[in-house]
Amino acid sequence: MSENVVHLHKPTDPPADSTAPTVLTVVPDAPPTPPAPLWVRSGRAVKSAVTHESTRATARAVARHGLYTFNGGRIVARRTWDGKTGSRYERMIRAAEAAGNLEAAEEWEERLQRFRAARHHRRMDLLHSPVEAAKGVAVGAGMSIGVLVALGVVMAINNGDIGDVIRPLSATIDFIALLIRIVQIVWGPALTIGPFLALLGLWAVGSKQQAAPQWALPANARSSEGEPITPSIVVKALRDLGVPALRNAIKEMGDAGASMLGPIRIAGCGVEVDVTLPSGVSTNEVQGKRRKLAENLTRHEHEVFITIPQAARTVRLWVADSGALDEPIGPSPLVTDDTMTADYAKGKAPWGQDLRGDAAALSLYQRHLLITGLSNQGKTVALRALALWVALDRSVQFLIGDLKGVGDWAMFDGLATTLIQGPTDEHVIQVTEMVEGAVDEMNRRIQAPPGTTFPALIVLVDEAQMAFMCPVKDEDKRPYGGSKSNSRYFMAVRKIHNQGRAVNVLMWQGTQDPTDQNLPKLVREGAHTRASLALGTESQARMALGDKAVDGGAAPNMLRPGLDQGTLVVASSGIDIPAGQAAITVRTHYIDDDAAEAITDRAKALRDGVTTLHAIERGEERDPLADIAAVVGDAARVRTQDVLKRLAALNADAYGKWSFIDLKRVLDGTGAEPYKSDGVMVVGRDRLACALANRPEDGSASASG
């Protein structure tokens, strides 16, 4: 008898044979994520509701209208108080005294005295007015009754009815009773509605005055402009500057600090005020907190300038109108006036406007020039604007080296004697030799007889930092760059700085991002006019303008890169600087390439024609006759004196020592000999062309010094 064994536990492994049933394993779903606690969901809902834009707009509207009503009540109360008391006159007196306007203060004080006298007269009249008012009421009532009775008598006589005598009086009494009944009916609702009407009136006053904070106002009514600058705002800004000695001194002053301030004067697109600091407070403590002072005055940092005038312990604040410095200043007179000419010796270049909105003009006479700043801030355009103006003086000559080489100075082709454009080391070598040629011309002029006058020769190098940083050396192992005693470009610039202005040989340089390596100290301090666009640090500002200008408040490092393009801080005796200041901020006119080309076309029309050399020729044989024809250019005739000058500028080594005898020697026998025209010796273009065409093929001669 077999026994069936029944297993009570399910086997974990399926049978191995093929007849075993398929086991289907069911994997249960992951348990659902438990919901967030109720307090978390409630907090999220509350946060979403509170931060929703509709809720915020509603809260602003409620706050706005509530503040309209509250501040409207304050305005009405203030007006009522001002009308009943002399507080308005006293307020105006304090403001006039704070502004230093004693005449206005005396006038307001006189008005206050008249107001008080009139008020006293009215109050004295009130002592007698009750008796006079009672008499007036009695007399008026009696006269009114008499008139009514007389009217009744007339009616009674006319109608023959004695009752008409009191009929007008009775009708008047009935009318008065009717008015009393109307008042009784209206009085109750008026007491209920009256407060709401009063609140509505206060709301209307507050709404009209926009008497609510900026955050509560609707978007179209919010003002981005800063508050007007008043004496109280300036004193409060200084008090909250974070200088303990200044804050304590203002608290101890009986006039709450108003005596520190000079008159607040309108100065261009802003205002200017001198602040005499109390004892124990130095001017650099205020200068060092420019940003905080600007914010206290509800201005941006670039809209407040702090300078040190001549008066001791005084700072001069210039505060711009909000946003005024971001507005363009308009086109240059060089662009708008086609008839403008230049006078290098006596005139001034129209460069732009100062912060007061006045025209800023710069004298270039016998002044070396340095303009620096960060890249792409308008340095080349500012430098070119000066060159464009002085180019309208036909006597001025140019040697130009553009070490950027992107065509910023291309319009001077045909105007400059030499124009080198390019950023390579070869271009630096060419520019260095150009400056050295200017040194030779300077030495030639110095050796001339005393009293000899020379036309201005402007040696202009843009992106001069490329020359100072050039690592190339010549065949004698002398570096072109650097700042050592054997550095060719450095020494050539130094020589022109030392002696050039005496003979009208001037050095103009434009550099960017100055350091001691790319702008050596001796070079930057040799410039008479130093200007700087936006810079990164105060140390760079000192390199650009010098310690004196920076200590006096000049701060090109505070200009905004990219936003204040074309804005320069200038230290120069050639520009009008307010008394006591060491520098002035100028917003320069922008002259684009097309306008610059039009100006140079006018300048070229003033000249007889200039052949521009695009490379410095070194060591080759010269053809004097061809060179003479080249410098004469398209002019029908040129004075021999001018021909000699142009030859010297073309190649100082070959022609720098030439005299009229040398010129005559070369031209004799060619048919192009100098001749007299209008009493002066000239060289004719047509005669030179015939001489070149008719000379034998081997007839060219070399220049011998």
Automatic annotation (TrEMBL):
Coiled-coil regions listed in the entry: none
Record-given protein name: Plasmid protein
Residues the entry annotates as binding ATP: 373-380
One Pfam family, short name: FtsK_SpoIIIE
Organism superkingdom: Bacteria
Domain FtsK: 352-542
Residues spanning the membrane: 137-157, 178-204
